[in-house]
């Protein structure tokens, strides 16, 4: 699938995923670097006190999972050789495992 594909619904879905993954990366990096959750996020998600004390853990894993989604969508939106697409898929899987490991192992 590429941007020249005749089905505009799939292109729109993939572009929405790209925008959401960029937002996940930006918010995750902001939380991990600043050490504070946005107040709206705390209210909506109803984070417990133990969860609020771990912004680097939650923000970092969110940023890695957002990067995973972004890398996963690249072969579908940009024309590239098959081997490069497979390589990006493996990189996306490694990012997903790293994000899950970051969340599971980082305790501060």
From TrEMBL:
- Report TM segments: 12-33, 63-82, 88-106
Q: Which UniProt keywords apply?
A: Membrane, Transmembrane, Transmembrane helix
- Please state what the protein is called: SdpI/YhfL protein family protein
Species per Swiss-Prot/TrEMBL record:
Micromonospora reichwaldensis
């Amino acid at each position: 699938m590429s941007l020249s594909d005749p089905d505009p619904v799939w292109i729109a879905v993939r572009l929405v995923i790209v925008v959401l993954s960029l937002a996940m990366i930006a918010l995750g990096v902001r939380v991990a670097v600043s050490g504070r959750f946005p107040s709206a996020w705390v209210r909506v998600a109803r984070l417990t006190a133990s969860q609020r004390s771990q912004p680097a853990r939650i923000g970092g894993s969110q940023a890695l999972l957002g990067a995973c989604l972004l890398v996963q969508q690249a072969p579908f939106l940009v024309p590239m050789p098959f081997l490069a697409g497979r390589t990006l898929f493996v990189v996306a899987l490694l990012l997903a495992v790293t994000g899950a490991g970051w969340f599971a192992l980082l305790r501060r």
